[in-house]
Write a structure and sequence with these properties.
This protein is mainly α. It has five helices and no strands.
């Protein structure tokens, strides 16, 4: 059985929820804060963190408390409640 090689970087990937043309302006709103910066692995993770923090990107694995915070808005929209840095870190760590 072939052994899977460990990833050497985390690509900046977005689901169709974020890429939806009607929701693209929300993504661009976050991305505009990083205008002129060189996209590195650390910056990509920071951008994903911001998208998660504001509820624009909602990974599958999340705690019940995060799920409750996001329950009042649809996926791909800004959440009514901003996540804490700790919640964002946990989500990133639990969604490789």
């Amino acid at each position: 059985m072939a052994r899977r090689r460990e990833a050497t970087y985390k690509p900046l990937l977005f689901t169709t929820t974020v890429r939806n043309p009607e929701r693209m302006k929300r993504l661009l709103n976050i991305l505009s804060k990083f205008n002129g910066e060189v996209l590195t692995s650390d910056l990509a993770e920071h951008i994903i963190g911001k998208l998660i923090k504001y509820g624009l990107y909602r990974p599958v694995r999340k705690s019940v408390s995060v799920r409750n915070k996001w329950s009042s808005t649809k996926s791909g929209e800004f959440s009514d409640t901003v996540l804490t840095d700790k919640e964002v870190s946990e989500i990133i760590n639990n969604n490789p």
